Amino acid sequence: MNTYLVLLQWVTQIPNPDPVPPPGSDTILNTLGNAKWGAQVALAVGFFIGLLVWAGGRWVDHHRAGRIGLIMMLCAIAGGLLYGIGPQLINYFAGN
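RESULT FIELD:
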């Protein structure tokens, strides 16, 4: 029993160093930033293409094209909401 107490005292005296980013982390963060920028552009382009498809389908009275354009716009809006809310939800559930 005494050995365990000595070991426990020794383990509690180990210093807790500050975290240091690994080498190459700047490159990874830049790549993630570029991917995030690309996602924003893709959502905006998807919304405006859906708007064009919807307007074109209504203009030529092609109901299926109008419905597909509306679905494209709704998917872009839902993606934008998930894009904006997602990081906060992940941080909340991760406990940060």
